[in-house]
Amino acid sequence: MTPQTRKKPERRTSPLSRERIVDAAIGLLDTAGESGLTFRSLSERLATGPGAIYWHVAGKSELLAAATDRVVTIALTEGTAGPPGGIHDVALGLFDAIEEHPWLAPQLTTQLSHNPTGPVTTRIFEATGRQVSALDAPASSWFTATSALMHYILGAAGQNAANLALARDLGPEADRSAYMDTVAGAWKQLSPEDYPFTRAVADQGLEHDDRVQFLAGIDLIVAGVTARPPAAQQLREGRARAAEAEPPASGRTSPR
Amino acid sequence: MTPQTRKKPERRTSPLSRERIVDAAIGLLDTAGESGLTFRSLSERLATGPGAIYWHVAGKSELLAAATDRVVTIALTEGTAGPPGGIHDVALGLFDAIEEHPWLAPQLTTQLSHNPTGPVTTRIFEATGRQVSALDAPASSWFTATSALMHYILGAAGQNAANLALARDLGPEADRSAYMDTVAGAWKQLSPEDYPFTRAVADQGLEHDDRVQFLAGIDLIVAGVTARPPAAQQLREGRARAAEAEPPASGRTSPR
DNA sequence: CCGTCGCTGGAATGTCGTTCCATGAACGAG
DNA sequence: CTCGTTCATGGAACGACATTCCAGCGACGG
């Protein structure tokens, strides 16, 4: 599968390399979107044929995985400078990476699902969890806290990137503020009977600064991690509630 | 586009209807996976040709949106029975729906991104937020809390569904417990220097009950929503921290 | 000087979403 | 009862895609 004899990388000067292919793929994804990455367009950009690419890359999914891995690794390693506010650094690093590469969010959820033990997933989990373990919280809550943070970061950052893309569609000079007002306006049109909450939120206005909004969510989860006294007890309560929430039907996987 | 004259639904007895098409699509997705839904396979199952389907449905994306909407609506309306533990009901309703329909998780993130004001997104936001507003928390934190919960629910439930699918690949009799042990085993193989946190989490063992694990995350976020005293102040701190976290480079969208 | 092997790129294959069109079934008008 | 119009059907055709195949290239070891 993989080219075995990569022993001396300087055998030639301008060959097609896996790195060059991944670079071109990232550029194509950034400029033309997810659907813009084609083996044809990639061939054209690299001035070669589709067949040549397959010598270095197994297929499209592996190419996407490699591109995702590259971008995530960069985003995670460059932001680890400042000593305080560790979680904010990791979160904003991913937030900015997803904003620059909107295709990243769907790709990351795909990686999470199809390959949970893969390098991308593990890297994000490790980077997030390391900041969690620096918090004042019992180790028994680490996994739960890291999961919550990771899913929020990925989901909210993806949402933000999507909002930006839609804001651009709204008009050339429209920024996120204008788009958020559009969303709030759409929410106010909803039926008061069926959507009281959404209308109430729209009435009080949506935060216009994306990073402030994003970090507010991070801080909210962090508050949940640190502020609660008995973490182990909480988990026991959760177990009891889960059992109680499933009274009669259907033998699922859980009722151990 | 849409068939206007749907006035009298009983004009004929066994016609191709949008409902029948969506039903068949859901069945196909459940049994054959995301890639199993094809207009050809759908035609075959409905004993017709591809062209006929396009009379009722605009295209594949609309078909997927309709299928997603159907499943989400059912999941959200049936679990709204019990009076207490409202968030758990909503969360478990979505959790179970995603577990039964593993294709739902990717579809939901797609809906969230491509159509944030669409019915699916709004429905989930409303259902989640209604339970948030019942909590003891200031209204200014509602949006943030609802976002955090929604992204966690979708992400964690999708992760769980993916784990189940991978556990089935592990062997016919393997359940989630066996798979979680496999993951923990893989994590223990990681480099102690690069992945100290992940190894530490693996050492203390992973919760085997999926619902308990899931609800622990819900409770953690809920604790963050309720337990912190000054929500408005927190947001102001977040704004200050955001400004401080971006000292030198690159004019982004936020630094207003 | 020649054969081999890593590597290339263009052609070919099969499947997909989508469009087109010839046909049929119901129904109101004459 | 008959005909034209409308709604609806389904099979065939089209273009784009990922992937595979294969005939060749160039450099290096013999």
TrEMBL record, chains A, B:
GO terms for molecular function: DNA-binding transcription factor activity; transcription cis-regulatory region binding. Residues 231-256 are annotated as: Disordered. Keywords: DNA-binding, Transcription, Transcription regulation. Pfam families: TetR_C_1, TetR_N. Residues 38-57 bind DNA. GO terms for biological process: negative regulation of DNA-templated transcription. Residues 15-75 form the HTH tetR-type domain. The keyword Cytoplasm does not apply. It comes from the Bacteria. This is TetR/AcrR family transcriptional regulator. The lineage of its organism: Bacteria, Bacillati, Actinomycetota, Actinomycetes, Kitasatosporales.
